[in-house]
Amino acid sequence: MNGFRGKFTLLALQNAPLILFAVLIIVFGFMSDRFLTPINFVNIVNQASHIAIIAIGMTFVLLIAGIDLSVGANMYLSAAVLGVFLVGMPPIVAFPVVAVLGLAFGAVNAVIITQLRVAAFITTLATLFVGRGIALYFSGNKMVPFSKSVLEFGRSTYLGVPSAIWVFAVVLIIALLVLKLTTFGRQVYAIGADPDAAAKAGINVKRVVFAVYCICGVCAAVGGLVSGSQVAVASSTFGFQKEFPVIAAAVLGGTSLFGGRGSVLGTVFGAVLIQTVENGLVMTNANPYIYPLVISVIIFIAVFTDSSRTTVLERLERRKIRVEPD
Amino acid sequence: MTAADATIASRPRVLPAWKRLLLSEYLVLVLTIFYFVVMWTIVPEIAAADTLLDILSAMMPLLVVAIGQTFVLIVAGIDLSAPSIIAMASVVGASVMTGDAGYANGSGVEILAGIVAFLAVGSVIGVFNGLCTTRFNMPSFIVTLTTMMFFSGAAIWYTTVHTDASSIGNLPRTFIEIGQGRIAGLPFSLGVVLVVAGIAHFILSRTVYGRWLYAVGLNPKAAAVSGVPVRNVIFWAFVISGVCAAISSILYTGRLETGTPVLGQRILLDVVGAAVIGGVSLFGGKGKILWTIFGVLFLTVIDKSLQLMGLPIASVFAIKGSIILAAAIIDATRHRLLVRG
Q1: Is A3's Cβ below 8 Å from some Cβ in B?
Q2: Ranges A9-18, A99-108, B195-204: which has the least confidence
Q3: What values do phi and psi take at B48, rounded to 5?
Q4: What is the largest CA-CA distance in chain B?
Q5: Residue A312's closest chain B neighbor by CA?
Q6: How would you class A97 by CB atoms within 10 Å of its CB: exposed for 0-12, middle for 13-18, buried for 19 or more?
């Protein structure tokens, strides 16, 4: 009986984020008629897409047990360059330019981390300040408006789906393919699980780590573009402290901060879950001051169940050994 | 082995001066002094007595939080919630003391009640962080990230419940003196900080608990095998961090004369940054109160000098970031040299 109950608990814990998601949808659905509509669902994904895109990049970094605190600054730098220097360019030209800039930002982090061997936390903390400083210099500490063509891109839809979601889908598919089907993807997991063993197995750890921070940089820039095209102007606090919801989304989706465990799909689920809560709170006319409280409690519950699962798993495995003595 | 060989072998290796400096634990202090001297030639006001006192009072509250953070960093944890503890304690403490319908107003012990409220908020959040990390095996980064989000939100919400203004003012004069008062020309907060730093230094260097902290930070499994109560050691590190944040909140609130929910919002990365620049390792097992003091001094002097130069915010950000980066690169180089021997 005990074993059955243990397995049941485990099953519940394993799917805790999904159960949480379902409960939230039911609760919000009852509280507001507008919540459970297809339009609102598209809306939620649309609003979640920039966080999801950046969190996909962050997932790569977290998988190798790294961290990137500079994504918010990278976002703002991209937005500032787009709004100040690339005004005349159509989005089709300007966006790749900004993405390359994001790659360069990521490469700076990567050089310092891999070549100068500075801890990722402190490196990206420093580049957070430098990046935001440079962006503020470009913007002159003022609001940065975007050109008409960028705003049109933000408002445009294709097959009834907003362009932000298309960008998000493309990033997601590429990331999925890279992690699941390429050698590089397996190397990322291997390094996260045990960097020394990975190095002994012949993986060029430095090169993979370098690439991972570049990927995160590109994702942050693309996230900045998507978010910028949606909000029309970038204030001087654009992207400020965005690193926290991004990391929260990844962790909510089951990505470990200690590397080696996590998936892009989980991360996307985490980003959508956070946005669903925020959207539900708006729909049910909750006190805006309560938003951060509710969201942090939900993240807490998700991480709490995830840790409990690990504990329960350990206990179950221990029991098995005791039950079957030959 | 001949006697001559033995003398050669036992003769201490003489390192070149730059290497000795690089390896010295006073490196950050030397860098600060060097920076200060360079700045002196650009902005002479920096050496004025008023500016120096300003630097001193500005670094006091930051120093107390950073000291608490040092304990958590030594056990390889991180406490991102410290700034939100400062904010929450500030508004709760102020709501107890304030002359505008404060809970303890007119009771005669409002200041005492207020200070107890500050410390209670800090220790309760610290206990929560500690429990989650040790009893439920949750990573401290995430636990304190969620407590940070929760209590920075809660502090703003708490303020809206109590007042229509954005902060809770009209605090007792005697309380404000804690943050602003001076004794013999020196800020009163200096005394508070000296006591906290003294106790922290004593705990880390002279007590069994201090040894345990380092043991747990270096290798928790080995520590557990050797009989160290690992969970309790980590638990108390978080409580200490919470209480230190609360003390810092008392100093900040006294200085600003109001309980503000956005207090300390921007110092999160400064706190961790200061400790790490001082040489405290994010991976645990390495750290000293003296190092943290140097780190905080370094960051405060930079902040003050950039402020004196009247630079736009863009340059302040960029320069501060570059300096943190330079310090980190120097530290990494130093570490490599040490490993090589």
Answers
A1: no
A2: A9-18
A3: -65, 150
A4: 85
A5: B136
A6: middle
pTM: 0.85
Testing the interface with A: which of B78, B129, B145 to mutate, by most A Cβ within 10 A? B145
In sequence order, what are the residues at sequence separation of 6 or more whose Cβ sits closer than 8 angstroms to the Cβ of residue B17?
none
CA atoms in the 13 A half-sphere facing the CB of B212 = 18
Average pLDDT of every residue of chain A: 86
State which residue of chain A sits closest to B272, comparing Cα positions.
A122
Structure tokens at A32: 């507001």
**What gap in Å lies between CA A123 and CA B25, rounded to an integer?**
21
Which residues on B lie below 8 Å from A297 (Cβ)? Answer: 146, 150
Which residue in the set B149, B283, B314 is minimally distant from A136, CB to CB? B314
pLDDT digits (tens, 9 = 90+) for A183-229: 999 999 999 888 889 989 889 999 999 999 999 999 999 999 999 88
CB contact under 8 A, A130 and B318: yes
Angle between helices A71-84 and A243-252 (to 10 degrees): 130
Q: Would you call A317 exposed, middle or buried from its count of C-beta atoms within 10 A (0-12, 13-18, 19+)?
A: exposed
> Using CB atoms, which residue from B150, B273, B332 is nearest to A296?
B150
Q: What are phi and psi of B183, to 5 degrees?
A: -120, 120
ipTM for this model: 0.81
Identify which of A69-73, A288-292, A310-314, B267-271 has the greatest average pLDDT: A69-73
What one-character-per-residue DSSP string does B145-210 give?
HHHHHHHHHHHHHHHHHH-SSSSB----HHHHHHHH-EETTEEHHHHHHHHHHHHHHHHHHHSHHH
CA dist., res. A159 & res. A146, Å (int) = 25
Q: Among residues 310-329 of chain B, which lie with CB inside 8 Å of chain A?
A: 312-322, 324-325, 328-329
Tally C-beta pairs within 8 A across A and B. 138
Q: At a CB cut-off of 8 Å and minimum separation 6, what does B77 contact?
A: B133, B140, B234, B237, B238, B284
Cα(B93)–Cα(B115) distance, rounded to whole angstroms? 7
Interchain CB distance below 8 Å, B136 and A292: no
Which of chain B's residues have a Cβ under 8 Å away from the Cβ of A310? 137
Cross-chain Cβ contact B317/A136 below 8 Å: yes
Residues 21-60 of A with CB under 8 A from B: none
Q: Does A247 touch chain B (CB under 8 A)?
A: yes
Distances in Å between the Cα of A95 and the Cα atoms of A89, A99, A134 are 9, 6, 19
pLDDT tens-digit profile of A145-181? 888 887 887 788 888 788 899 999 999 999 999 999 9
* Strand A144-145 with A161-162, pairing: unpaired
**Closest CA of chain A from B239, distance in Å:** 19
Angle of helix A291-323 relative to helix B140-162, nearest 10 degrees, comes to 150
Q: What residue type is assigned to position A206 of the chain?
A: K
Q: How far is Cα B299 from Cα B270, in angstroms, rounded to an integer?
A: 8
Contact state of B153 with A248 under an 8 Å Cβ cutoff: no
